[in-house]
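Changelog note: in this version the structure field was regenerated for every chain. One regenerated record is shown below for reference.
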Amino acid sequence: MTIGDRLRELRENLGLMQITVSKKIGISNKVLSNYENNVSIPDLQTLILICKFYNISSDYLLGLDKKENNMGAQVTEDEKKILNYYNRLNEENKDATKGYMINLYREQQNTGTAITKKGII
C-alpha cells in the first residue's frame, strides 16, 4: 500500500471529501489529489500536518508501521454515516453537536445508564 492509498483510505473512512481535507490541512485540492493518486508525495511540513489532522504516526503513513494508531480503519458503517452527517453541518451546529455528545457522555458516566429516543434504558 502506498502513501496515496493510505491517504485516500483515511479520508474515505471518515466520510470526508478531498476539498474538506485539503482546506483543513491548508493545501489545494489538486495537491491532495496528486498525493492520493501517487503523482507526488507530501513534503515534510505537509506530512506533519496530515499526520496531525488524521491523528496518525508518520511511520504508518510511510508504510513503516502497519498500525494506524487511530480509529480510521476501525470505523463501523454507522460511525461512517454519523461522521458524514457531522461533516455536512455548519460550524455552529458542529459545536452544538459536540456539546450535546459531551453532556450525554457525562450523564452516562454519572448514572451508568444510556439515553435513547424513547427514554432512559
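Spot check on this record: DSSP finds seven helices and two strands in the chain. The longest strand covers residues 115-116.
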